[in-house]
């Protein structure tokens, strides 16, 4: 495996990170990696990654040879299915939120509550037992948690209000993780982020979070993407992703 040359670093081996989740359950994971990002969910925020325990162990065995990138990081699947309430059994029926009281409807308040509850469930029901079984650190505050925003998941579209509800879901997820003293970032492409979330106000809990940018097709393009605009105001691009040999690889921008 060839090392990726990082800006300002003459030699770094291995200087590449990987991200894995449930699709890699039956794969032999890369032996040489500087850091790893593991998906907690099994494609949907309501499902667990069935290989989470094994992949956490693998992630903590990364070399940690890239400054500014913890050896083991995590990501969560995100979504907002509020337009499909008849089909959603996990939609909240109540809750006090920054957007007022949730009454079970397709509202900004319930979208925020949905995000909080999905993050809480992912941490308490999926991550914590898997980390303890793997005998690695089970404290959320010891990890960077990336919120994975992609059009392949269920989102609301068509109006500014729909984007507001989507944004509120991410805010709820981020708020829960921050309440556990975790570090939080956002993952997407600029195009998908614009379609799903749109602009983030300066007073949002999302403002200032680090960005992990997807969409590059080579290591060189991923390195260049470090200079692109972050997904949210006042944030920084911390990671960029590219695919080679069917593996998601990641370049540190730090």
Which key phrases capture this entry?
single chain; 254 residues; alpha/beta; TIM Barrel; eight-stranded mixed beta barrel; two-stranded antiparallel sheet; 10 strands; globular
Percent of residues in helices: 25-40%
CATH architecture: Alpha-Beta Barrel
End-to-end distance: 22 Å
Which structural class matches the secondary elements? alpha/beta
- The gross shape turns out to be globular
Number of DSSP helical runs: 5
Work out the radius of gyration.
Answer: 18 Å
Count the domains: 1
Mean pLDDT: 94
The CATH class turns out to be: Alpha Beta
Name the beta content range.
15-25%
Counted beta strands: 10
Uncertain parts: 1-13
Specify the biggest β-sheet. 8 strands, mixed, barrel
Stated plainly, the CATH topology is called TIM Barrel
Major beta sheet, strand line-up: 1-2-3-6-7-8-9-10
Q: What is the element string, with H for helices and E for strands?
A: EEHEEEHEHEHEHEE
**What is the assigned CATH homologous superfamily?**
Glycosidases
Task: Give a written overview of the molecule.
The protein has 254 residues and is α/β, with parallel strands linked by helices. The chain has a single domain, classed as Alpha-Beta Barrel (TIM Barrel), CATH 3.20.20. It is 28% helix and 21% strand. The protein is built from five helices and ten strands. The strands form two sheets. An eight-stranded mixed β-barrel has the order 1-2-3-6-7-8-9-10, surrounded by four helices. Strand 2, helix 1 and strand 3 form a beta-alpha-beta unit. Helix 1 packs across helix 2 and helix 2 runs parallel beside helix 3. It is globular.
């Amino acid at each position: 495996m060839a090392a990726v040359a990082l800006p300002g670093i003459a030699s770094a081996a291995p200087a590449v990170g990987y991200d894995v989740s449930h699709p890699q359950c039956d794969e032999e994971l890369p032996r040489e990696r500087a850091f790893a990002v593991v998906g907690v969910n099994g494609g949907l925020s309501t499902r667990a990654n069935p290989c989470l325990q094994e992949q956490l162990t693998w992630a903590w065995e990364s070399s940690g040879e890239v400054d500014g990138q913890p050896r083991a990081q995590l990501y969560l699947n995100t979504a907002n299915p509020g337009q499909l309430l008849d089909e959603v059994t996990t939609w909240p029926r109540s809750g006090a939120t920054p957007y007022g009281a949730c009454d079970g409807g397709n509202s900004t308040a319930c979208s925020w509550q949905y995000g909080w509850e999905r993050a809480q469930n992912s941490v308490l029901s999926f991550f914590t037992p898997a980390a303890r079984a793997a005998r690695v650190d089970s404290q959320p505050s010891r990890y960077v948690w990336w919120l994975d925003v992609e059009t392949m998941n269920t989102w609301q579209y068509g109006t500014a209000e729909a984007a507001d509800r989507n944004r509120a879901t991410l805010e709820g997820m981020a708020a829960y993780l921050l309440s556990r003293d975790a570090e939080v970032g956002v993952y997407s492409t600029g195009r998908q982020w614009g379609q799903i979330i749109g602009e983030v106000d300066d007073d949002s809990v999302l403002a200032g979070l680090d960005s992990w940018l997807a969409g590059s097709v080579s290591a060189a393009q991923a390195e260049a993407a470090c200079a692109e605009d972050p997904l949210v105001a006042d944030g920084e691009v911390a990671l960029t992703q590219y695919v080679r040999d069917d593996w998601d690889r990641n370049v540190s921008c730090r």
